[in-house]
Amino acid sequence: MNFKNANELLALCQQEGCSISEIMRRRECVLGETTVETVTRRMTRVLEIMRQSATIPLEHPVRSMGGLIGGEAKRLTAHAAQKEDICGPVLQKAITYAMAVLEVNASMGLIVAAPTAGSSGVVPGLLLALQEIFHISDERLIDGLFNAGAIGYLAMRNATVAGAVGGCQAEVGVAAAMAASAAVELMGGEPEQCLSAASTVLMNMLGLVCDPVGGLVEYPCQNRNAAGVANALIAAEIALSGVWQLIPFDEMLSAMYRVGRRIPAELRETALGGCATAPSACQRCGCCP
Amino acid sequence: MSFISVFDVLGPNMIGPSSSHTAGAVVIANLAHKLLAPPLKQVDFTLYGSFAKTYRGHGTDRALLGGIMGFPTDDLSIRDSFRIAEERGLAFSFTPDETKTEVHPNTVDIRMENAAGQRMTVRGESLGGGKVRIVRINGVHVDFTGEYASVIAVHQDKPGVVAHITKVLSDHNVNIAFMRLFREGKGDTAYSIIESDGTLPEGIAGELKTNPHVRDVMIVQS
Questions:
Q1: Residue A156: which of B9, B59, B78 has the nearest Cβ?
Q2: Which of A106, B129, B130, B164 could cross-link B211 (Cys pair, CB 3.0–4.6 Å)?
C-alpha cells in the first residue's frame, strides 16, 4: 500500500474503489506499522491544534516576535461583522483563519506545520471555513486532512516544500494544492478532480518567490497564506465544475521543482531580494549595518 | 520512520514561527540532552549561519534552551524557557558566530556540563521541516537523526568491540537498521552508532559496558 506519484495514487483509488484520503490512511497504517485508531487519534489532535490557532486571534490578537504582524484576523472579523466583506462567506472566513494561524505562529504559539510553519494557515483556513459554511463533520474534515497529506507527501517526495530550495511556490503553493485537493474531496469530487485542482494551484502560483522581511516568518508570509487560500478555492471550484486540466499533477509538480531550483538564491528565503529589500521593508527591519 | 508519514506533512505540531529555526532547534537540543546524564548545570550555545543571523526573531534561543531541558516541539513552556532555566539553576549563554561559512546554514554547537562535572559538546544541523541530524560529538564526526531508537557507544578503536555490541543487540533480538563507526584516529576514541527498529530494551547500556574497551553508552529512544 504505497504510491510514488499521482498516477499510482489514482490507480490505487481505482483498484480499491476508494478516496484519496482512504488510501493515505491505509498507507499510514501499513508503513507506520500502526492502527487506524492511532492515526485517527493523532489526526484529531492535528485538527484540534489547527482549530485553536485559527480562531484564538479573532478575539485575542497577538503581536509577532518581530513586530511586523498582529491583529489582522480580528480586523477581518470586524470588517465582516459590519457586512462590508466582498469575498463571500467561504473565502472571507478562510482568509481570516489563515491569517490568524500565521499570527499565532509568529508569536511562538502552537501550530501544525502544513507542510511548513510559514504556510501553516492555508489548509486549516480553507477546511475550517468549508466546515462552517457547509456543516461538515469533524470526521469528514479529518478525511480532508488525510487527502491533503497525500498531496503534501508527493510534493515532499518528488519535489520540495522548503522555501530555501524552491521559493514560496513550494511552501504556500504546495499548501494551497493540498487544501484544494482536500476541498474537492469534501465537496464530493472524484480523486481525478482532486489532483486536477492541486495541479491548477501549482500552475497559478508557479514562480512565487520567498522573500521574508528581516528573514522572519511574518511578512509577506501572512498575506501569502491568504492568497494561497484564494488560489485553492478557485482551483477547487474549477475542478468541481468538471473542467479538465491539460497538465496532470505529477508534471506540474516537476515543473514547480524545476522552476524553484532556477529561482536565484536572493529570492529563496535569504531575505536578500524581493519584498525583503524594498526600501520600506529595510527601513522597518533595520537588520543591515 | 524511514517513510514520509502523513504526520511529516501535517506536522510537526510545533511552537512557531519556523520549522527549521524553532522546531528543528528544539529537536537538536532535545537529542543533546539525552546524551549527557542529568541534571545539567551549564549550557553554552554557539550559533552559525542563518541561526546566527536571525535567532532572536525566530525564538531559536528559547527553542534551544527548551529542548535542552527536554521539552518537545509542541510544548508552550518553550516560550518561558529562559525563566524556567533560571528557576532550575541552569546557567546558559548564546554566542552568534557569523565568521564560519563552511558549516550548514542552520548549525549549532551545544557545550553542556552536568552536576557531576561531565562535559560534552554536540553539533547539530537543522535540515528543514523539523528534521535534524547530529553531526559531531566532542569534535568527532558522527551522523544520526534520532528518528530511530539509537545506541551511541563510546569505545577504544580495538578489535572485537563491534562484535561485542552486535552480539548484545542480537541477544536482545534488536534488529539493526543502520550501523556506523566513527573514530578520531586508528586505535583512538571511536563512536559506534546503531539505529534500530522499534524500542531498545532496558538495561542494554549496562550489558554493552561489560566490554572493557567500551567507555560510555548513550541510548536515545525514538
A1: B9
A2: B164
